[in-house]
UniProtKB/TrEMBL annotation:
InterPro entries recorded: DNA_brk_join_enz, Integrase-like_cat_sf
Species per Swiss-Prot/TrEMBL record: Effrenium voratum
Biological process (GO), any one: DNA integration
Keyword Coiled coil attached: yes
Name of protein: Uncharacterized protein
SUPFAM superfamilies with a match to the protein in the record: DNA breaking-rejoining enzymes
Lineage of the organism: Eukaryota, Sar, Alveolata, Dinophyceae, Suessiales
Transmembrane residue ranges: none
Residue ranges the record marks as coiled coil: 190-217
Keyword DNA-binding in annotation: no
Gene Ontology MF, one: DNA binding
Amino acid sequence: MVLREKVDMSQCRQSLRQTCKKVRFCCACHRDRCLLKVPLQARGKREPMDAKQLADLFERLCKAGKPWAAALSLLQLQCGERADCARRCTTAWLHHIDPGSAEPPFICVPSVNRKTKAREVPLCAPFAVALYGWLHISPLTSAKNSQWPFTAPVQTDADQLLFPGLSKEAGQGKGCRRDWRRPVTERAYLASISQVAAALRRERQEARQELRTHLWDDVDLSKLGTHSLKRSSVCLLKDVCMSTAVVAAICGTTARTLDKIYDAPTRKRQRAAATDAFASLMSSLRSASVSGAGRRKMLFCCACGEKPASDAWQCCPFCGKAYYDG
């Protein structure tokens, strides 16, 4: 049974009553042929975030009672990976995150799906220290009495999931419990970010009504999702003038895909490019305009006799006559 508004009535028999609300078909092939073809609307690229917005997202996820999502967003940002790969991270992936280690920290990403390239990704030292502290010293807590990791301390000798999901034990009346064998779903991760995006949308609307600026003014919050972290990672790396080859090695994505899909011409990069390109030109123009080669010093205006306030004046401020007629 299919609703009438979803059916192309020209493909059905003429004797079908006009008052019917649902249509029944003889087979699946006939049903598929009669369904209205709804054109797919392009969702567009996910919105990238700058450093201040990423820090604000982390704090808001913690305040919303999702410290695991906050930690997962940082891990995904550091690796430049998709959410499906980052959510599967285990303790075996992490290497030398102990602050006392003599080796630099890195994460060994295995090929968990067809889109993930197995590689070693260097970790930022402050992030490695923070991650080690959360896992082994003091967990990351939130305002709603929740923490990550869910059990502390984490056993480093076992291959343990960092972001285990929930499983429902049917028939036992225990509700949802932590499943230590399965990672958290992408849907749960996206729901956490969408919850923050909804709160940001309300705050931004109130700020606009009060004629105040907001940190997220230039961001399309409807396109804020889990894939925004990967795109933000690419943009932040490109903002520090990293070559495409270096970014591709970190993010495990081809250079062509980086330039076509993930990289975005951020305002910071545009401003830096404009400054580097035109700063020398403008300095030359300023030096030429004030050099005044061969110009003699003007003692008084030849029209009104008033003394000029400065040698930089080109015209008399009292009568308007040009000091230097050529």
